[in-house]
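Q: Convert this sequence to structure tokens.
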Amino acid sequence: MSNILRDLKEKLDGEVAIDTQTREFFSTDGGIFKVLPKLIIYPRNENDVSETLRFNHNLLASKRALPVTARGKGTDQGGGSLSEGICMVLTAHMRKLVAINEDTVTVQPGMIYSHLETVLHSHGRFLPPYPASMDFCSIGGAIANNSSGEKTLKYGATRNYVASLRVVLYNGDVIETYRLSKKELKQKRKQQDLEGQLYRELDDLIENNLQQIESGKPKTSKNSAGYDLWDIKRRDGSFDMSQLFIGSQSTLGIITEAKLYHVAYNSSTTLLVGYFDSIKKLQQAVMEISPLNPSAQELVDDNVLKFVIEKRPEMVKNLLPEQLPAFVLLVEFDDAKAKAQAKNSQRAYAILQKHSYQQRVTSNKLEQDQLWKIRRQAAAVIWTQQGPKKALPIIEDGVVPLDKFEEFVEKAYLILDKYKVKDAVWGHAGNGHLHIQPFMDLSNIRDRHKIYALSDEFYRMVLSLGGSISGEHNDGIMRGTYLRQMYGPEMYSLFKHVKKLYDPHNLLNPRSKLGSTKEYGMIHLRKEYSMQHLLEHLPGLASFH
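A:
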């Protein structure tokens, strides 16, 4: 290892760290696993990323090559940013805004999402699929996970906003991906290099398996599980390899730059809140409101409300009715035309009156901010839970077709009751998408054994309803083990073919997605759970400046 460290330092502009403190810091992320990396690299530029992968590729001959994983801020809740070998931290230096134009912005992957949104807002624009973790997460991580959030209901997920990517391949080659015309694809296929090989073989794989790929597409409104083979080639023959890298969690290549589309931002919105005594009534309201094209339909359950009332009562003061609701639904409209927004809001309010026992509506920004706290800050409060039992992200990303949402919620509660765990439920009701976090103690042997038993039953239920195991948080170590079950052996075989094509030596984040197993997960369970790393500065840098 000392020779590898010395040789790497000579090749890179960025820093390399192998001290115990730094490695420990990057051994966890937002998930429940702990994996200790051998060394940490803080690349300063694309060349550092390229040199690292080229150097590592050359170590194959001597059998000293290491697994490599790209990492943003570590908000990933499935263990997708953990590595046994090289952990490449892109938020240290590669966080610049490269260029901003009328409808696109070009950024490095380590830029924090909320920092980009602040810049875009100053231009009257925004990037709509921002996740709830936007104050912490990086743009690169959002792309690698195909992240989405409350606005995805109207605007779509991250993949809908990627114009082009710069990606470093397993051997250090750098390519730029964007939508090619049929003619341009033909030219790419003629190239006698790795890039040409990838275009030829990926194109052939898609063409030779069109029926299987189409039938394997999840019937949900959002999906981040597996590799996206559906959005690469269109009927007009155009071809965009970017779509494959989006959501691939650095298992196929490492993104070093992204050009993203942004759209007009309207800060003048109308927010409606409905308080419900049953999930049946809530689903009916959501389905009736959906055709009005709201920008958000968000949900929290009474478990979340009770927790907040107990821990932070001031947060929900004067925001809840006297009768505690089983569910709260927040509906937002952001139509650019004021008349259209008012009309849609009035219709939605009438629907809420029909199905909920109490309602509120406001266009006042300060009032809206207070009401949004019920949804946006509830999770943050839950994560402050003291004691050994924590809200764990193990079944927190299931999504089903909207007409199955009531059944989804009811069956989820039954499973949680069966395993006798307290829980918190919130999510994107308009997408049929729930974030469920059961309170469990990772130091307790009984709770540790419950994790996969509970997960098995939960994901089996989600799939029985025609759902996806991951709406927006992707697979990682936690959910990768369920991919074969979700897609079936034929589709899973295509995923394996793609992985072998782009990573023939299985060195790019090999334990995420297709390399995930329950046995590996159990061995690497943490003894305790926290998100403290989000509040701390990156270690291992001070001594290098």
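The longest strand covers residues 433-441.
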